[in-house]
Design a protein that fits this description.
Elements (H helix, E strand, L loop, with lengths): L1 H6 L4 H21 L2 H4 L4 H10 L5 H10 L1 H11 L5 H19 L3 H33 L4 H54 L7
Helix pairs in contact: 2-8, 2-9, 4-9, 5-6, 6-7, 6-9, 7-9, 8-9
Length: about 200
Amino acid sequence: MFEIIKSGGWMMLPIILCSIAAMAIIGERFWSLQRKRIIPAELVPYIWQLHRDNKLDDATIRRIRMSSPLGRVLAAGLLNRKHGRDMMKTSIEEVGRQVAFELERYLNALGSLASITPLLGLLGTVDGIIRVFSDIAVGGMGDPGILSAGISEALICTASGLTVAIPSLFFHRYFERLVDDHVVRMEEESLRLIDIMQGNREDV
């Protein structure tokens, strides 16, 4: 593996750095965007139970806010539950936009890596081809060994750039879809809570 990387030339270094960054982002997003961490299934029933028992005090709402992104959204509505449905909905929407933005953290960077690495591979390819023609100009076409190094560098850089870019692009699209799903689910849970708190729904 080291010999392959070495034969790819100097452009392999930024490609390797991009691959490490992409792997780190993918691992972090897999951990952070787990459904149970974003949208705990028991949260709305728990809030409804507290509401029926008249235990929704400020300290409890603070704990709900710190529990998860969904808890942060719902807590905004709970703090304004005495001001009517419209105020609850407005407060939830304001915090929901902030939470949605935070869920997209690092996705732009991952998309940029997916776009940059093929270009780095292309740059390495061009550099290898330039070296091939320079060697031809100096030594002629008689020695195949003169050409092999430059051609190898060109092919390795192209393959390496694509190897990093393809999974990066795949996971970028996957995480974007996952964030969209989480946002829609949080909206559903928020409307459900508003209906409960305003007396339009009796149970969960």
